[in-house]
Write a structure and sequence with these properties.
The protein has 9 helices and 14 strands. It has 270 residues and is α/β, with parallel strands linked by helices.
Amino acid sequence: MVLPRVIATDLDGTLLDQNGQVSPRNHRALTAAVEAGIRVVIVTARPPRTTESFAAMFDCAAVVCGNGAHTQLPGESEPLVRAIDRDTSGTIVEKLRFSLPGLGFGVETGTDFYHDTDYHLEPWIRAEWVKGVLDGTDALLTAATPVTKLIARSKQYPVHHMYEAAVTAVGTLAEPTYSGGAGLVEISAAGVNKGSTLAMLCESWGVDREEVVAFGDMPNDRSALTWAGSGYAMSSGHRDLLDPALGLKVAPSSFEDGVGRVVEEILERA
C-alpha cells in the first residue's frame, strides 16, 4: 500500500477525546505521519483562536478554520480568506429571519466574534472572545468584517429544522451546514466548505484526491469526506455520515483514538 500524501482531520468529535484533548495515541500517530512525509491538515469549524493550540502540536501543512473560510499556511503572514460579502450577508439574514422568526446572528471574522442582541450566547464562549454586541443587522455587518462565517442561533428551533429552512431560504447565495450545536446553523460563502478548500490546497500541492485520507464526524465534514479518496466517518459521528449509501469508511470513535488507530494501520501497511 502506498502512503497517502495528505491526512486531513476535523477536531471536535474526531481527533479530540471526551475531554476535548488530543490523546497521546492520536498525537503519536499524526507525528509519525508527518515524519513519514505526509502532509497533516486540520480542517475544523472552529475559529483560529480555539484551534491554534492544537495546530501547534503538529507540523501542520495547513490549518483550515471556519469550515473552509479561513486557512493559514506555514510561512504565510496573511491567511487565505473566503468570506461572504456584506450585501449577500444582509440578504441572507433577511431571508432567514423571514423563514425563522426570532433568530439571533453572530459573525466570525477570523480574528474576532460579534453578535447581535438577539443572539443566545453559548455558555462555552468566553466573554473576552466577544468583540462586540450590536443592535441590529446593519450595525453587526458594518462592525464585523470580513464575514468568514455567519452563525444563526435559536433557542426555539431544532438544528435539523433550521438547516432545512436555511437551505431553502438562501438557495445558491451561501453554503449552510451544522456541526451538532443545538439550534445553531453555520453559513459560509457560496461554494465554501471543508471539501472545496481541501481540494484547492491539494491542487496547489499537486496532490490527487485519491492520495488524501480525511476524518470527520458531522454534516459539515461531509464535503471533505466524500471528496477525499479515503473518507472516514467516526463511528460515534452523525448518523447521516454512517449511511452505507454514502460509501464512507468507518473509524473507531473519537473516544477510542479512532484517528490514531487508523493512521497507525495506514503506516504499518505501507
